[in-house]
Design brief:
Elements (H helix, E strand, L loop, with lengths): L11 E3 L4 E3 L1 H18 L9 E4 L4 H12 L5 E6 L3 H18 L3 E5 H5 L3 H8 L3 H20 L3 E3 L4 H13 L3 H6 L3 E2 L7 E3 L7 H10 L16 H15 L3 H21 L7 E2 L6 E2 L5 H15 L15 E4 L1 H4 L1
Parallel strand pairs: 3-4, 3-6, 4-5, 6-8
Antiparallel strand pairs: 1-2, 5-11, 7-8, 9-10
The structure holds iron/sulfur cluster and zinc ion (ZN) (2 copies).
Length: about 325
C-alpha cells in the first residue's frame, strides 16, 4: 500500500477514510484534521487562554503537541493523583515532554491540596477510585483555570473515549449527560469552555501519531482502569469496528448531528441557575458543590478510620505549582 499523497510506501492506513500515508504525510494529515476540528466548532478564539490537561499518556501529550504546532500557546496542567509508581512515572513523562519543548506546566497534587491521595479517598468513601478521581480532576481543571486566568480547558478525549461514553449514556438513557456530551461545551461565568480537539481520531490513530512524531509517553494504564465499564464499551465498539470500519465515527458524529439537537430542544427549559459554592466559591447548582460534599464526607470517614488526625479539616484551595521551562532543562 502506498501513501495517498506522495506514493511512497505507506506506514499508516486510515481505514475509515480509505486512505494511507507515509510518516510525514500522516503527521501532516493529523495536524490539519485537528485544525479542522478546532475551526469547525470554533473551539479556540482570539484572546483565549488555553489550559491543556496532561496526564502523561499518549492522548494528552499528542493534544499538547498538535496545539503547539498549530500556534496555540497552551499551558499544561498535570494533576498528581498519588497512585503509587504509576503517578510518579506519569509526572516524569509530562515534565520531560514540557522541558524538551520549553512549555509551561502547572502541577497540582491532590494529596498536598486536599489531604488524601486518590486511593485513600476511595478507601475513605468506600467508592470506586475512578468516581472520586474523575470528580476531583474535573473540579481542579475548572478551578485552576479560573484562578490562573484560563478560559478554555482542552482534554485529549479521542473517538474511542467519546463513542464509549455515548454508548454508556445511551445504555442507561442518561439524558443530562447526552445533552452535554460533545467536542465543545461552551463556558459560562466561572466555568471554562471545555474542548476536545482530538474527538474525531481513533485511539489507534492517536497512538500512530505519537509514534511517528517521536512523542515519549507513559504506556502503562492506571491500575484502577481495569474493570472500568468504559473498557467494556470500548471492547464492544472495537468488535463492531473490525467488522464494519467507521462504526464509531458514524455512531458519534450522527448522534451529534441528528439526535442531540432534537434532545436539546426537547429538554431545554432555560439555563440552570448557577451560584457559588459556600465552601470553595466554585460555580455550582446547589449551596455546596459536589466536590466539597465528597471531600467533607471523606474527611469524616477518614478520621474514623484514622487515615487523618481528629483535628484535620478539609481546605478546598488547591496548591498550584508553576514549573517554568527554564527550571526543567
Ligand atoms: Fe483516575 Fe480511574 Fe482514570 Fe485511574 S482509571 S486515573 S483512578 S479515573
Ligand atoms: Zn507521503
Ligand atoms: Zn465547593
Amino acid at each position: 500500500m502506498n501513501c495517498s499523497v506522495c506514493g511512497a510506501p505507506a506506514q499508516m492506513e486510515v481505514r475509515r477514510r480509505n486512505r494511507a500515508f507515509c510518516a510525514e504525510h500522516y503527521r501532516e494529515w493529523f495536524v490539519s484534521e485537528t485544525r479542522r476540528n478546532l475551526k469547525r466548532h470554533r473551539m479556540i478564539r482570539k484572546e483565549d487562554r488555553v489550559l491543556v490537561a496532561v496526564s502523561g499518556g499518549k492522548d494528552s501529550l499528542v493534544l499538547w503537541d498538535t496545539l503547539t504546532r498549530l500556534g496555540h500557546a497552551a499551558t499544561g496542567l498535570h494533576i498528581q493523583l498519588g497512585i503509587g509508581d504509576y503517578s510518579r512515572r506519569a509526572l516524569e513523562a509530562t515534565r520531560a515532554f514540557a522541558a524538551e519543548r520549553g512549555l509551561e506546566l502547572i502541577v497540582v497534587d491532590v494529596r498536598e491540596s486536599f489531604g488524601l491521595t486518590v486511593p485513600q479517598l476511595a478507601q475513605a468513601t468506600g467508592r470506586a477510585a475512578c468516581s472520586g478521581c474523575g470528580l476531583s480532576k474535573r473540579y481542579l481543571m475548572n478551578r485552576v483555570a479560573e484562578e490562573e486566568g484560563f478560559n478554555v480547558v482542552a482534554t485529549g478525549h479521542n473517538l474511542d473515549d467519546e463513542a464509549a461514553t455515548l454508548l454508556g449514556n445511551v445504555s442507561h438513557w442518561q439524558l443530562d449527560a447526552l445533552v452535554r456530551q460533545g467536542p465543545m461545551l461552551e463556558g459560562r461565568e466561572g466555568l471554562a469552555r471545555r474542548i476536545k480537539p482530538l474527538y474525531s481520531f481513533t485511539e489507534r490513530e492517536v497512538a500512530a501519531y505519537a509514534f511517528l512524531a517521536g512523542i515519549e509517553y507513559q504506556h502503562e494504564e492506571c491500575p484502577h482502569a481495569e474493570g472500568a465499564k468504559s473498557l467494556l464499551y470500548k471492547d464492544v465498539l472495537n468488535r463492531l469496528e473490525t467488522r464494519m470500519p467507521g462504526t464509531k465515527q458514524v455512531f458519534l458524529e450522527q448522534y451529534l448531528k441528528k439526535v442531540q439537537p432534537v434532545l436539546r430542544e426537547g429538554l431545554e427549559e432555560g439555563e440552570v441557575e448557577l451560584r457559588r459554592c459556600e465552601r470553595c466559591g466554585s460555580v455550582t447548582t446547589g449551596a455546596v458543590c459536589a466536590h466539597c460534599k465528597l471531600w467533607d464526607r471523606a474527611y469524616a470517614r477518614a478520621k474514623k478510620r484514622r487515615l487523618l488526625p481528629e483535628e484535620a479539616s478539609f481546605d478546598p484551595r488547591p496548591r498550584v505549582h508553576h514549573l517554568e521551562p527554564a527550571n526543567e532543562a
